[in-house]
Structure formats: C-alpha cells, structure tokens
Design a protein that fits this description.
Layout lengths: L4 E7 L7 H11 L5 E5 L18 H12 L2 E6 L8 H11 L11 E7 L7 H13 L3 E2 L5 E3 L14 H19 L4
Parallel strand pairs: 1-2, 1-3, 3-4, 4-5, 4-6
Helix pairs in contact: 1-5
The structure holds flavin mononucleotide (FMN).
Flavin mononucleotide (FMN) binds next to helix 1.
C-alpha cells in the first residue's frame, strides 16, 4: 500500500441539506491520516457539449485534473427518477472526453447511494457501474452500499446513527484498502 492515498470525493446531490453529503462527511471523518480527500465540486459545471472539446473551459479542466490526480474516486449519491442525478452524469461525461483522453480509464471508483425510500438509490449505483464499465474504470463491487430509509439512519442533529456508523466504518476500511492496493 502506498504511503499516502489521494481520494476525490463527488457528491451527487447539489442541495445544501443533502443526506448523501451527511453520510459522505461521516465517511471522510473515518478515513485514516494517510488519506487525503478532496471534493470535486460539480454544481458549477456547464452541461457537457461535445463542441466544447476544442476549447478550454476552466471548470472542466479543474475537475479533469482533480480526477486524474486521484488514486480513487468515491461517489456518494441519491437517485433521481430511477437514474443517477443529471449533475453526476454531467461530470462522468466531462471526465470521459475529449475522445481518448478520458480520466476514467483504469480509475478506481466506488459508489455509495442513499435515499429516504426503500430502494436506497440502488438504480443510481447500477447506472454508475454501467457507465464505468464502458469507460474501463475499475469499480469496487464489494461491498455494495445502498442506504435505504436513510432518514432513519440520521439523528435529529444530522449525525449518523451508531448502527449505520458501524456499517460505514467497515466500508471505509474496505475502500481505503481498495484505493491503496497498487496490485489491484
Ligand atoms: C428530481 C427528484 C427525483 C427523485 N427520484 C427518486 C427516485 O427515483 N428514487 C428515490 O429513492 N428517491 C428519489 N427522490 C428522492 C430523493 O431520494 C431524496 O430527495 C433524497 O433526499 C435526495 O438525496 P439528497 O438528500 O442527498 O439530496 C427524488 C428526488 C428528486 C428531487
């Protein structure tokens, strides 16, 4: 395992009170000191247009460089209308282009989903797998984390319930192993 691990974090929800952000913040708090984690902000990214491939868009360059420099990408996201949210798909597309310059090729990627509903945002996770497979990324497939009825896993002050904390701690351990494993 390398001495230090760089993680890029993407939150698929843009809203301030996002429950996915709360779970992500808890996971970040559980990362060991050897991990440097930086959020890739996606709210300001113009909608991807192939015409932009021949121009320089600062926000596109920013996220491409962040993703390129990361040992692994952690995505924490809801689903919107049974698919990944549009803002999340946008950064997937931006990172995938220009043609043959994709930042996703061989990139280690893990996705955690959460929803107040009973499916836990699983469709968003499955969508991400589909895109990442096509882009030759290396998806972490086990464990799969889709937090259903996720409001019940948050206390009134927004902190994560002890039961879900334990669950997420195990995920963080596995994810850090995955991110730092250079032979994988
Ligand atoms: C446009 C839209 C579509 C949604 N579609 C789904 C859905 O398909 N499945 C689901 O479980 N929840 C759906 N929801 C509810 C979200 O799971 C819920 O708003 C959740 O809190 C979003 O995550 P966040 O708090 O991190 O923003 C939808 C919400 C919005 C705003």
């Amino acid at each position: 395992m390398s001495a230090s691990i760089n993680i890029a974090l993407i939150i698929g929800s843009l809203r301030k009170e996002s429950i996915n952000r709360k779970f992500a913040e808890y996971m970040v708090s559980q990362m060991p000191e050897s991990v440097t984690i930086k959020e890739v902000y996606i709210a300001d990214l113009p909608l991807y247009n192939q015409d932009y491939d021949d121009t320089t868009i600062d926000s596109y360059e920013r996220v491409r460089q962040q993703l390129k420099g990361a040992d692994a990408v952690l995505i924490v996201t809801p689903e919107h209308n049974r698919t990944m949210p549009a803002a999340l798909k946008n950064v997937v597309d931006i990172g995938s282009r220009p043609y043959k310059e994709s930042v996703w090729t061989h990139k280690k990627v893990a996705v955690v989903t959460a929803s107040p509903g009973s499916f836990g945002g699983i469709n968003s996770g499955l969508d991400m797998r589909k895109s990442m497979q096509m882009l030759s990324a290396q998806m972490m497939i086990d464990p799969e984390i889709h937090l259903s009825r996720a409001i019940d896993s948050l206390n009134d002050d927004g902190s994560v319930s002890p039961r879900t904390q334990k669950f997420l701690q195990r995920f963080v351990t596995d994810f850090v192993d995955f991110a730092g494993n250079t032979s994988a």
